[in-house]
Design a protein that fits this description.
By secondary structure, the chain is an alpha/beta fold. It has 13 helices and eleven strands. It folds into two domains: 15-114, K Homology domain, type 1 (Ribosomal Protein S8, Chain: A, domain 1); 130-344, Rossmann fold, CATH 3.40.50. The strands form three sheets. Strands 8-7-9-10-6-11 form a six-stranded parallel beta sheet, sandwiched between helices. A three-stranded antiparallel beta sheet has the order 1-3-2.
């Protein structure tokens, strides 16, 4: 009797071990120096990744032992492999590497069709990037990847979506990439001078000093991608022009990369005016968030109208980003979703 009971216990233990082995994956990576960057100080990145996707990760030398739910451990393996791959080909600047790289890979995986969610790395041709003077810019969500592809392949692109999805930032990156390669002669950055609750007339200074605070996000993007002295030099030479939309009337943009920011606040007349400024060798990006229109009540948004009018033209691409493409603090995406749900209800 004792013998039979002992056998049952051993058999149960084997079944338990089998289940444990089934939900474990061993991932081995070759470079210890890159692994050190990947895991972070005191393996902080692994600790965060464990919490993010509910797995256990143990590192022994250059081997990652990942355990947990079968779907989650496959996801963790793919994330670690892709982050390591990008580090190895220097797509990411190692000095700026942090946990956001892991969050980026998770967003990319979650946006893939189910038949693409495998243990293999993304195809090499999916590593789209824009080269600026200070850093390499890569997409951080599936929506951003579609936006990247549109910026590369279309002469007129509409980027629609909430704040934090990288619409203006990525458009500036594309413009700088083209300027650096000599594909264009100048970058023109503009937006309508519409106040979000304030009044320009009460601000001190001339028109430039009044409008500059509204163009601050564009300046910030420029300084993040180019040395400050180079930005100032190109603004002085006219290779980079930043001005209110009203100043664009009567002009024709040739060999230029034009970015119209906050386009939800254009009037119907302004939108038609700027769209018909495109000249030979130029590209234009129209960005805006249709949920944040600051026009006076009853006034039609030029962006909303143009979306309807131009949606069927083959050579124009309209990309719609959403809360899943927000690259700021994760709580920002939750805030946007909450407001969207509130409006729907």
């Amino acid at each position: 009797m004792f013998y039979l009971v002992l056998n049952l216990k051993i058999e149960s233990l084997d079944i338990l071990n089998f289940k444990t082995k089934k939900d474990e994956i061993l991932l081995e990576l070759p470079s210890n120096s890159l692994i050190a960057v990947l895991v972070g100080h005191h393996s902080i990145n692994l600790v965060k990744l464990e919490k993010l996707i509910d797995v256990n990760i143990n590192l022994f030398g250059n081997q990652f032992n990942i355990s947990g739910n079968a779907e989650n451990i496959n996801k963790a393996k793919l994330i670690i492999s892709n982050v390591y791959h990008k580090l190895s080909i220097k797509e990411s600047n190692i000095s700026e590497f942090n946990f956001s790289n892991f969050e980026t890979e998770l967003r990319m995986i979650q946006g893939l069709p189910s038949n693409r969610k495998s243990n293999q790395k993304f195809d090499q041709n999916e590593n789209i990037k824009f080269e600026t003077w200070k850093k390499t810019i890569i997409p951080k969500s599936i929506g951003q990847k579609k936006y990247f592809e549109a910026l590369n392949n279309f002469e007129l692109v509409f980027g629609l979506g909430p704040a934090g999805t990288g619409k203006s930032y990525l458009a500036v990156a594309k413009g700088i990439d083209m300027l650096k390669k000599g594909l264009i002669e100048k970058i023109i950055l503009t937006r309508p001078a519409v106040e979000a609750g304030e009044r320009l007339g009460f601000l001190p200074g001339d028109m430039k000093e009044k409008i500059d605070p509204y163009l601050r996000p564009i300046y910030d993007a420029l300084y993040e991608m180019m040395p400050a002295d180079r930005v100032e030099k190109k603004i002085q030479s006219g290779e980079i022009e930043i001005a209110p939309l009203a100043f664009m009337r009567g002009r024709t943009f040739t060999n230029s990369f034009v970015i119209v920011d906050e386009a939800q606040n254009t009037s119907s007349i302004q939108m038609k005016m700027v769209l018909t400024r495109i000249g030979e060798g130029s590209r234009m990006v129209i960005n805006g968030d249709l949920s944040q229109v600051d026009l006076t009540k009853g006034q039609i948004s030029g962006l909303k109208e143009s979306k309807k009018i131009l949606s069927k033209i083959k050579n124009i691409k309209i990309i719609c980003l959403d809360a899943n493409d927000v690259i700021r603090h994760p709580i920002v995406a939750e805030i946007i979703k909450a407001y969207d749900n509130f409006k729907k209800n």
